[in-house]
């Protein structure tokens, strides 16, 4: 029991300390709003404002509290909070981190009055077009192999300032490099675009991008399809990988130096054979990393295979906190709500590196001893502690100053005796006795 109480106190200190760092340098009204949003999303595990209000605001009706939160979300400038967040999570990964870039969607098929609705492909329903919003996400892999978001952009093509999805991606990459430093950007086939290759090369960033099947490369001065270029590659290096499900696969890999049309810089084409027991359909990776031996070749493949972690991150974001259930009419409020949820998920990344991580996971009573993605376990264990927190978050951020000691008040009897003694003293001094 004592061990449980001590862990709960440490967990409470971790959470309150995280919120205090995130809101550093902000005004009191903004700090109160941010604290209520972060605490409310955590306690309710929801992005619905009424649920957030019920779990973070006391003494005010839920209706009025939700309306006030909605007004703040419409006008809130998240720049300072996001800067504090990037500075905080930047300590979770080392130099030259692995950045995984991908897009997801928030589908809202029944919300006709929400601002800026656009047609997006629903990945969970055979890519059918449905009303919703697009989200560009960049996650870094922390020291424990867990994803932590360093950029999250909710956008729609109906915005007046919208140019293209590629512009959104490039701006996000530049922001990540500015806030968290250079790294290796890992992307799937949706980012196989010469413009994106040129952009990453221009800002001097390393990348690993999977190619589409119709990609042409220049081999020995001749433009040919990527499959033609890989015909002579039969798998020089053998290695095995083990998936989260426990399944193990034996793969072969090779590499050659190629170029892309409209690009002068040489690239390395890495081909992996035998993925999912399909030796005739290898997957191809293009990278500007130096590949010259077995270790460097396999490192490129392993880095790409870690891309599944962003898929788990998207799934966790939607299932654990109901990201697609958000109900706000204004686009600015939706963007700010997405930012607050990203900050909440960032706290899970900090917990994964804390000293009480194992105790929180034990509290969630996991079925399997180990898991590659541990946020579900942290989520369950942390929410058990969350409702045991005793101290007020706002009092932790703004502790009350001790009141100065008040002079002791005397009753009427002692006051009259005091006045009589003073009168007798004056008479004595004036020679009245």
Structurally, how many domains make up the residues? 2
Q: What is the class of the largest domain in the CATH system?
A: Alpha Beta
Strand content: 15-25%
For the record, the CATH architecture of the largest domain stands as Alpha-Beta Complex
- The CATH topology label of the largest domain is Transposase Inhibitor Protein From Tn5, Chain A, domain 1
The N- and C-terminal alpha carbons lie at a distance of 75 Å
Summarize the main sheet.
10 strands, mixed
Q: What form results from the Cα inertia axes?
A: elongated
Number of helices: 15
Query: In angstroms, what is the radius of gyration?
Result: 29 Å
Order of helices and strands: HHHHHEEEEHEHEEEHEEEEHHHHHHH
List low-confidence stretches.
none
User: Percentage of helical residues?
Assistant: 40-55%
Number of strands: 12
Helix/strand/pairing class, anyone? alpha+beta
CATH superfamily of the largest domain: Transposase Inhibitor Protein From Tn5, Chain A, domain 1
> Average pLDDT, to the nearest integer?
87
Explain this structure to me?
There is one protein chain. The chain is an alpha+beta fold and 433 residues long. The chain folds into 2 domains: 151 residues, no CATH class; 219 residues, Alpha-Beta Complex (Transposase Inhibitor Protein From Tn5, Chain A, domain 1), CATH 3.90.350. Strands 1, 2, 3, 4, 5, 6, 9, 10, 11 and 12 form a 10-stranded mixed β-sheet that branches. A hairpin with an 8-residue loop joins β10 and β11. The chain is elongated.
């Amino acid at each position: 029991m004592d061990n449980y109480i001590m862990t709960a106190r440490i967990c409470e200190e971790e959470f309150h300390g995280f919120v205090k760092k995130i809101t550093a340098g902000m005004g009191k009204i903004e700090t109160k709003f941010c604290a209520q949003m972060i605490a409310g999303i955590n306690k309710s595990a929801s992005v619905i404002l009424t649920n957030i209000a019920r779990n973070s605001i006391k003494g005010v009706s839920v209706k009025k509290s939700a309306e006030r939160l909605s007004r703040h979300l419409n006008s809130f400038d998240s720049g300072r909070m996001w800067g504090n967040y990037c500075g905080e999570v930047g300590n979770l990964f080392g130099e030259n981190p692995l950045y995984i870039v991908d897009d997801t969607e928030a589908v809202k098929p029944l919300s006709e009055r929400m601002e800026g609705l656009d047609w997006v492909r629903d990945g969970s329903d055979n890519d059918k077009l449905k009303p919703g919003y697009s989200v560009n996400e960049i996650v870094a892999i922390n020291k424990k192999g867990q994803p932590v978001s360093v950029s999250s952009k909710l956008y729609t093509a109906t915005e007046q300032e919208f140019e293209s999805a590629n512009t959104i991606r490039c701006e996000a990459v530049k922001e990540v490099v500015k806030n968290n430093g250079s790294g290796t950007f890992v992307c799937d086939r949706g980012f196989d675009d010469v413009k994106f290759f040129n952009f990453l090369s221009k800002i001097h960033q390393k990348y690993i991008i999977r190619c589409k099947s119709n990609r042409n490369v220049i081999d020995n001065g001749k433009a040919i399809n990527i499959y033609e270029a890989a015909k002579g590659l039969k798998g020089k290096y053998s290695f095995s990988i083990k998936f989260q499900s426990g399944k193990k696969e034996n793969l072969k890999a090779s590499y050659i130096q190629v170029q892309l049309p409209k690009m002068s810089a040489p690239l390395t084409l890495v081909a992996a054979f035998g993925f999912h027991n399909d030796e005739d359909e290898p997957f191809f990776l293009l990278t500007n990393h130096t590949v010259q031996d077995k270790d460097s070749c396999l490192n490129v493949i392993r880095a790409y295979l870690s891309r599944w972690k962003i898929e788990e991150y998207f799934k966790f974001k939607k299932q654990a906190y109901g990201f697609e259930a958000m109900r706000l009419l204004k686009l600015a409020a939706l963007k700010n709500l997405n930012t607050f949820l990203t900050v909440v998920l960032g706290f899970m990344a900090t917990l994964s590196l804390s000293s009480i991580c194992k105790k929180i996971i034990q509290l969630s009573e996991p079925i399997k001893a180990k898991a590659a993605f541990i946020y579900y376990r942290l989520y369950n264990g942390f929410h058990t502690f969350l409702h045991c927190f005793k101290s007020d978050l706002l009092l932790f951020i703004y502790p009350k100053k001790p009141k100065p000691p008040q002079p002791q008040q005397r009753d009427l009897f002692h006051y009259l005796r005091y006045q009589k003694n003073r009168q007798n003293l004056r008479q004595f001094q004036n020679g009245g006795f």
